Write the C-alpha cells for this entry.
Amino acid sequence: MADETVEGYAGNLTPEETWEILKTEKDAVLVDVRSAAEWVYVGMVDLSSIGKEDAKIEWKSFSAGGMVENPNFAAEVDAVCTDKDVKVLSLCRSGVRSIATSKKLTEAGFTQAYNVLEGFEGDKDTAEHRATIGGWKFRGLAWKQK
C-alpha cells in the first residue's frame, strides 16, 4: 500500500490501489466525502462495472456561512457500512478532507479507515486547474458526469 506510516487512521492508498481493493474485496466501501455540489458539477466515481455503488456522504456542506462539518458523518457511514472491520476508503477532491474523515471514522471504531491519495481531482497545476496531474479522473478510473 502507498503509505502505512500515518497516525490516527489505517493508511493512504493510491487511486489505483483503491480501485483494486474495490474490485477484489466485496465488502470494501468507497465513501465519497465531497459536497453535493461537487458530485453534480465535477463528476462522481462510477463503480457500476464492478457491481458496486459508492456511498455519497458529505463531510462538509456549503452554507451561507461557508463550509459546515456534518455532525452525523460517522453515523451516516455506520448506516451504510455496519461492519466496522471492513475497509472504508474515503475520497474527497484532493486527498485532504478524506484524511480528516479517515481519522474521524477510526475514532468512531472503524478499524480499516483509509484515505485515497490525490482524491477525485488531484492538486492544482501551475495554471490552477485540477485533474491534470493526479486524482481519480486523471488516473483514468471510471467516473461519470450528471
Notes: The helical segments are 15-24, 36-42, 73-80, 97-107.
